[in-house]
Specification:
Helix 7 links the parallel strand 6 and strand 7. Helix 1 runs antiparallel to helix 2 and helix 6 packs parallel to helix 7. With 370 residues, the protein is of the alpha/beta class. The strands form two sheets. Strands 3, 4, 5, 8, 9, 10 and 11 form a seven-stranded mixed sheet that branches. Strands 1-2-7-6 form a four-stranded parallel sheet, with no helix packed on it.
Length: 370
């Protein structure tokens, strides 16, 4: 505020007979108001989807490459824990399985945040490859015989020009990532995902390369240890490696800060190891709550990936029904003879590919659709 005008006003007030003490009090009040305007506190801002976020000076942008220094500090969200549930979830033609309650962690009538625009691929640390092929890997033409298949794995159809929308809308979930068990598509394609990282069978690298097997890995730090180089070999074949937490806890019911530590911590590991920020996240055991979705959003997660079919020792098991459906997400694990009753990792993958082919499907790359 310009001070000349008020100064003239105060002099005129004194000359016209106003008590000097009242004039001084008024001047002090005006100067105090000017000082408070200059020191106005920084407002809290919302995310680009309207979810509450920390003040802009404290909160890193979700699209910024993560680093050890940028890990979110604790204490930014309320400590109340919502009941175990899940967010907006696409189930395809079967709808939501709404009557199952909280066992697999779903919020009823939950909206999707929509597919947030993906940030440009981050430039990775020196010596890392920060890009992947945009299409599913191609295999050798006759390698299928070596791996016990009776025909080669068919190439997947061309992915859609625009990725399909996931989930449903509702204001209470704006800003949270959608969850998906099936991709909305009518193409005869399913999506293989492989979790954890216990087994590091070098023959699986050969098998994946020779078959042209597209899959998405969801990696857990505490079972990988110092062996990220093994998973980097698979990643360089065109198979993305995504986030499956640091220590594989059941996240539902955990405090927000602890969930952020699990999710953002593994995000940072994958960034430093591979030079890419993961955009997909799978909660261990498929268990999560709304706090998980808030923590995942804070850590830059675009979509929470669940599954509808799982490869077990004796074949495929389904959450409902008895066969694969277009767009199904299939769960498998990096496991070896100790966990597979004597089967090797490559035996398990051969059985999985056979089961998928027998039902008239081929395998696509999940990141081309979500």
């Amino acid at each position: 505020m310009h001070v000349l005008g008020p100064k003239i006003t105060y002099v005129m007030m004194i000359k016209t007979g106003f008590p000097r003490c009242l004039v001084l009090v008024g001047a002090a009040a005006v100067l105090t108001a000017c000082g408070s305007l200059a020191a106005a506190p920084e407002p809290h801002t919302g995310s680009r989807h309207g979810a509450p976020m920390p003040p802009a000076s404290l909160a890193p942008r979700l699209d910024d490459p993560p680093s050890a220094a940028s890990r979110p500090p604790s204490g930014r969200e309320p400590e109340q824990r919502p009941p175990a549930s899940s967010g907006p979830e696409y189930e395809g033609d079967e709808g939501y399985d709404g009557g199952e309650g909280a066992e697999d962690g779903r919020v009823q009538d939950a909206p999707p945040s929509g597919d947030a625009p993906a940030s440009a691929p981050a430039t990775g640390p020196p010596g890392t490859a920060s890009t992947l092929p945009r299409s599913a890997p191609a295999g050798a033409s006759d390698a299928y015989r070596r791996w016990g298949l009776d025909r080669p794995l068919a190439r997947p159809p061309a992915p859609p020009a625009v990725k399909p929308a996931l989930g449903r809308s509702g204001p209470q979930q704006w800003g949270l990532p959608p969850t998906v068990r099936r991709v909305p598509t009518d193409q005869r394609v399913v999506f293989v995902t492989i979790d954890d990282g216990i087994e590091k069978d070098p023959r699986f690298v050969e098998q994946a390369r020779e078959l042209g097997l597209p899959f998405t890995g969801f990696l857990t730090d505490n079972v990988i240890g110092t062996h990220y180089d093994y998973f980097d070999q698979l990643r360089r074949l065109g198979n993305p490696m995504e986030n499956h937490t640091l220590t594989h806890p059941s996240l539902a019911g955990m405090a927000y800060d602890d969930q952020v530590r699990e999710i953002c911590g593994q995000r940072d590991n994958l960034w430093h190891r591979f030079g890419q920020q993961p955009k997909l996240f799978r909660p261990p055991f498929g268990e999560y709550d709304e706090t998980t979705l808030r923590a995942a959003a804070f850590c830059g997660v675009r979509t929470v990936v669940l599954w509808r079919a799982e490869m077990e020792t004796h074949g495929l098991a389904y959450r409902y029904g008895d066969h694969l459906l277009p767009g199904d997400i299939v769960l498998a694990h990096f496991r070896g003879p100790e966990q597979l009753e004597g089967q090797s990792m490559t035996d398990m993958i051969t059985g999985l590919v056979r089961a998928i082919q027998a039902q008239g499907f081929t395998i696509g790359r999940l990141e081309d659709y979500v």
